[in-house]
Specification:
Belongs to the peptidase S1 family. CLIP subfamily. By secondary structure, the protein is of the alpha+beta class. The protein has 5 helices and 15 strands. The strands form 3 sheets. A 7-stranded antiparallel β-sheet has the order 10-9-13-14-15-12-11.
């Protein structure tokens, strides 16, 4: 090999390795325009792949699905503090990539002739509750969960992007993705599948009087589980960003909910998710 050929090879190696590394990095906030624009209440298998299930064990060791967790990286999850407060990490596990919560997470979920691989079960190594969390009035109702090991990214398990610091002035077109509480229809398997709900900001004065600066009031005709994600689609290329998580309901006529604003807590989240 000539010296100049050898030098060219050395020069191109970093570029090659950089390209290979870039191809292996999963981007956050995967966006699909067809899924975004359809009117379906139940998501596709690979839609909103950052939505996970939080399960807690009781005194007999049986696990129950209690809240939604939102994946923001390979090992970190956001959820309301009230879902995991006063619970040891050993009593909690999470499941990602499991579209249908009514069956065993080791079973493959299928829809429209397509089947996803079984969900990924992860134990918890650490739970960090926001230091200013106040359970009684849901102030700073936020926790970071650190998994015991990284999830394996695929089209069915991916993180969502954290939002930019700038606030959203026009909240039209936002979506709440997660699971809903199957009230009154526990035997309806559709109630346990991953849902998406149209976001409509609430102008109800009681909701705003009871809420706080970091809570976004909204209304819906359904009953989302705590931790369900309020997501916005923006940017170029368009991506999903986590705008909030469902933390509270209000005893008003109809379904009124409060979402904790993620923008209000970006610094704290980054401090507690840095590797």
């Amino acid at each position: 090999m000539r010296a100049e050929d050898f030098l060219i090879s050395l020069t191109t190696l970093p570029i090659l390795f950089s390209a290979l590394h870039a191809s292996s990095v999963v981007q956050c906030g995967k966006f699909n325009i067809n899924q975004f624009e359809n009117k379906a209440e139940i998501t596709d298998l690979d839609e909103h792949p950052w939505i996970g299930r939080i399960e807690r064990s009781d005194k007999d060791g049986a696990y129950a699905f209690v809240c939604v967790g939102v994946l923001i990286g390979s090992r970190h999850v956001l959820t309301p503090a009230h879902c995991v407060a006063r619970v040891s990490p050993e009593a909690v596990h999470l499941i990602f990539g499991d579209w249908d919560a009514s069956n065993n997470n080791t079973a493959a979920d299928c829809d429209k002739g397509v089947c996803a691989p079984p969900g990924q079960l992860r134990s918890v190594s650490k739970i960090t509750i926001h230091p200013d969390y106040k359970e009684r009035d849901h102030q700073n109702d936020l926790a970071v969960i650190e998994l015991d090991k990284n999830v394996e990214f695929s089209e069915y398990v991916e993180p969502i992007c954290l939002p930019p610091a700038e606030s959203v002035t026009n909240r039209s077109g936002l979506i709440v993705a997660g699971y809903q509480i199957p009230e009154g229809r526990p035997d309806n398997s559709l109630a346990y599948r991953r849902h998406k709900m149209k976001f409509e900001q609430s102008e109800n004065t009681e909701c705003h009087e009871e809420s706080w600066s970091d809570v976004i009031c909204w209304t819906t005709d359904r009953n989302p589980l705590s931790g369900s994600a309020l997501v916005e689609a923006s940017g170029s290329p368009r991506k999903y960003y986590l705008d909030g998580i469902v933390v509270v309901s209000f005893n008003l006529l109809g379904y009124h909910r409060g979402c904790l604003s993620i923008r209000s807590h970006l610094d704290w989240i980054r401090q507690n998710t840095s590797q």
